[in-house]
Design a protein that fits this description.
Order of helices and strands: HHHHEEHHH
Largest sheet: 2 strands, antiparallel
Signal peptide: 1-23
Mean pLDDT: 81
Keywords: Signal
Structural class: mainly alpha
Radius of gyration: 22 Å
Length: 122
């Protein structure tokens, strides 16, 4: 049986109140606690059709038409599969790359925008 972080924290508070801190060490050694919980990935998908000209240029340095033109001119495949096994449309993959290049971004910040895990974005 493994405990989540929230349950482990409650148990730690209870053991501290009962002066049973040694029990906590024994449970840690028995691997009763999960590792850190992964961050929540928002259920969002990028839709370039919702971007106005100014917003697209600000975030990607290209307008939506320019992104689609790049896809055609570079003869990119319709679907991109990342090393992490995530699949996405080529326009989304190119938008992620352009977004990362537009200004130094952290992968964690990009999770909210693209709705993908950090391994999928790297």
């Amino acid at each position: 049986m493994q405990l989540s972080q929230a349950d482990a924290l409650e148990l730690l508070v209870l053991l501290a109140a009962l002066n049973e801190a040694d029990s906590w060490v024994v449970m840690q050694e028995a691997c009763l606690f999960d590792g850190p919980e992964p961050p929540l990935i928002p259920d969002v998908r990028l839709d370039l059709d919702t971007y106005g000209y100014v917003n697209a240029v600000k975030e990607f340095r290209f307008d939506v038409h320019g992104i689609c033109l790049l896809v055609r001119l570079c003869a990119m495949p319709d679907t991109v599969i990342t090393e992490a096994g995530d699949r996405c449309l080529v326009e989304e993959a190119l938008a992620v790359m352009l977004y990362r290049l537009s200004y130094p971004k952290r992968l964690h910040d990009m999770m909210d925008k693209f709705g993908r895990s950090t391994p999928a974005l790297s």
